[in-house]
Amino acid sequence: MFCRNQTSRATVARGSAMEMEVKRGRFRLSVLEDSAQDCEVQRRIEREVRIREGACKLLAACSQRDQALEASKTLLTSNSRILALMTQLQRMKEAQAMQRAERRSSDGGSVDERLPCTGKIAISDIRIPLMWKDSEYFKNKGELHQCAVFCLLQVGTEIHDTDLVIVDRTLTDICFVEPVIFTDVPPGFDLRVELYSCCVEGEFSMGFSTRRLSRLGSASSKKFMASLETAASCSSHSSGTRSGESSPRGESPVLLPVLSVRGPKYHLLAHTSLTLCHIQNSFRTHDLTISDTDRTVESSFWLPLYGNVCCRLVAQPLCMTQVVMCGKLRIRSETNPEDWRDVYSVLSGSDLKCYQQQDDTDSLETPLFTIPINKDTRVCARERDPALHSHSITIINQCGDETTYTILTYTSEDTHRWMEAFWQHFYDISQWKQCCNELMKIEEPKKIVLVTKQGSLYHEMVTPPSTQNRNHLLPLNRPVSSEIQSLLSSYYNDSY
What we know:
It comes from Cyprinus carpio (Common carp). Keywords: Coiled coil. Residues 17-98 form the REM-1 domain. This is Rhotekin-like. It contains twelve helices and 18 strands. With 496 residues, it is an alpha+beta fold. Strands 15-14-13-12-18-17-16 form a seven-stranded antiparallel beta sheet. A hairpin with a 2-residue loop joins β2 and β3. α2 runs antiparallel to α3 (65-105) and α2 (36-61) runs antiparallel to α12. The longest helix has 41 residues, at 65-105. The radius of gyration is 28 Å and the shape is elongated. The model is unreliable at 1-10, 24-33, 106-111, 203-221, 227-255 and 450-481 (pLDDT under 50).
């Protein structure tokens, strides 16, 4: 495990730019100390390792189909998060090393570039159409083939999974209705959607011997973390690369050690990537890249995908939901140049709202007037006007009837601060594009409280799996037993 009271070991990818700088003597590995961000990533890795161990123990203890499928899904999701976090940690180390090298080699300091604001993105109402044969769907012939299916959604190191659903030939679409929300996302995001499937007809062998179960304790945790530290020395790769897949540009992927855990296995059916251009405040259809059809079409986990995915993808940039700038101003319109009004102004979203006083903003009072601020607005700072005895800012709205507003600030520092806020706001709007035309609505996922049944693990294991409503879309939300929960409690307590 990563130790907080010990000096962290710096990891350098072989053949990377950082290794070349080390060889040239530009800096030493000892200067690569953990920053606060590094420690946070390491803490998240430790958390996922504990979740992975808990999923392994759950697979070893349970024999019910639903519980085994959920535990295997958790195992796959945790592996994906560990892989993404290790890649992020490696990139952070290389970036820190390159920054130190640039500071030592350059005479002058580098000017920080303007960065756009981040925001929330939400994907919901996922529909994946199926293309069954006529003999299977309409005539209801052949064996009723069932698969457990879920989606894995990833933006950077933030990974979420959907509920499990049972799919057979009675369904024409795979549906995931609940929204999945990603926070602190830049406008250049890449949302990867992966569809996984597992055949549920087979008999799963989940039993581990007592000796094997006891080995999944702290010893395996130390060995696993040691393997992760070794993996960090490999070259960084794309966050979408999975264990066992080839890495782009010939780089060596960070491979996770494989644990021999018996149970249901999920297979990647299809995937797609969604970016800023796919965001619309409506339900849209996107192309879906299907995995190797020639090799998997005869597999038990295969489903006849149509090749499309329908969903609603929306975004809320912070510039549309948070206050960018606020303060006291004097404003006049060119239609009435003698009417100066002392107001308290708030810049947020696509408006500069002007209130009579600051308390009106907290009481949700209607503003006295509103100045539109959008991509068609032009803002410029004027030199000190002898007539006004102050610096001024001019706002010109070129959409519709052209209107000009003149703003006076109380100090030159205030003028600079407001101009900087306007430029940053315009830059955020230019980067988020259509997401700033209107505030899109994001529905929060519903909170489901699971009530655990009382009873022994024996009664849970001898109860046959339910076969009711097998022809409907069924989320696998059966609560686990109290014994299995206590088995995992030691691993989940420190995770949050």
